[in-house]
Amino acid sequence: xxxxxxxxxxxxxxxxxxxxxxxxxxxxxxxxxxxxxxxxxxxxxxxxxxxxxxxxxxxxxxxxxxxxxxxxxxxxxxxxxxxxxxxxxxxxxxxxxxxxxxxxxxxxxxxxxxxxxxxxxxxxxxxxxxxxxxxxxxxxxxxxxxxxxxxxxxxxxxxxxxxxxxxxxxxxxxxxxxxxxxxxxxxxxxxxxxxxxxxxxxxxxxxxxxxxxxxxxxxxxxxxxxxxxxxxxxxxxxxxxxxxxxxxxxxxxxxxxxxxxxxxxxxxxxxxxxxxxxxxxxxxxxxxxxxxxxxxxxxxxxxxxxxxxxxxxxxxxxxxxxxxxxxxxxxxxxxxxxxxxxxxxxxxxxxxxxxxxxxxxxxxxxxxxxxxxxxxxxxxxxxxxxxxxxxxxxxxxxxxxxxxxxxxxxxxxxxxxxxxxxxxxxxxxxxxxxxxxxxxxxxxxxxxxxxxxxxxxxxxxxxxxxxxxxxxxxxxxxxxxxxxxxxxxxxxxxxxxxxxxxxxxxxxxxxxxxxxxxxxxxxxxxxxxxxxxxxxxxxxxxxxxxxx
Length: 548
Hints:
It is built from 16 helices and six strands. By secondary structure, the chain is of the alpha+beta class. A hairpin with a 2-residue loop joins strand 2 and strand 3. Helix 3 packs parallel to helix 8 and helix 4 runs antiparallel to helix 8.
């Protein structure tokens, strides 16, 4: 008769509740920023800075968790509470959408002038509604270029502005910001490059409140994620073949994330309130599951671990080894590839949709892509990742991941219409992201000296989704702007294949010694540790995964 390992139930519950709390929020962070009037390009700058902070925060908090061993659970729970309170603070952000909607940070408008624009009145700049009713625009007509303000006159009724510009079905007021020589208007048509007024964005208190809450919440999430992995491996340290069972615990996080992301999407869509308050159901779901997560973490019975007399010395001795340096480099490259896919795949697929006439279905397609990635792609590979790593070893497993990254990127570049992306992500999200992520955190656990697990996990994760994500978003943005989506994904596919070859060649050459998983775990004295879903009589310990 099979028995369930009750000692691992709290860590399973933590992964489920923790990721379930994040499911309604993480996909909507940029949308929340947009709803309070933050332009997309400025949101891009913010998200480019965040990963750099992960590089610093993850090892630092990991060091605290290793140094104050008896406070590990308290630090764990505190991080969850801080993260939840920061994200819950979005509810109190004032909602103030701009009177003139821009889909991007700037837009090129073809306009019709009904009257010659005059110089902007001083009262416009002094108006309390100036930032919410006005955009700046550079307009051109034949050989003339003039700088203007574009105003929604109904948003500043006190100024009694009369519309003198037509764009589509909307009428606006346009005025000159600079006194220029007399312009001979040959016709009423003009091209205007419309964009947000940066001083309005940066001078807003709600902008800086949003940035602070976003930084605290997102850093809290990423650090908690890293500490979760460290605690999970600490708990599995006393299990026979514990290293290979990480994926069977982590898979519950993917399930929780997928369920609540779908649930929140449906509920928010039915919610009738406006602006930021429309995310109230998502925030409520997050708070409920965060409370359940704190309770599940409080039930964790952490094993007694051998401490380290000098954590930084032990970690420094570790990272000086050629195999570890090489692994950190390839973990960073994996982060670069992941960040490019995360930040630019939907951008690319929307370009394809616009070219092929599938724009009316694009949000449905993107939702199905996320569902395919999460529930059909990641779940089986997280569950079986331990067995795969045990069979192949970390070196061959990482090489295989880079090979399939190359195939995945090539197929994303090739898709003739957006629907093909659902199939691509269904088959390749698991064997790339899920397997690669498990390989990185499992390797970090295997090589970490006793008493340094959280620090080493933070270091590895900081290189992957910290430094790697920052470099990937920067390089990817430049390439996407210059080359477009298809060519950018082709070049990334070539880079992934070159990385695969380099990994096959360099990793064995850098292997000066073989690192074996840690030993010396002591389980809590009040609980036994049967193998998860083991049968009686107890099987013999299985062969440990190959750690190179």
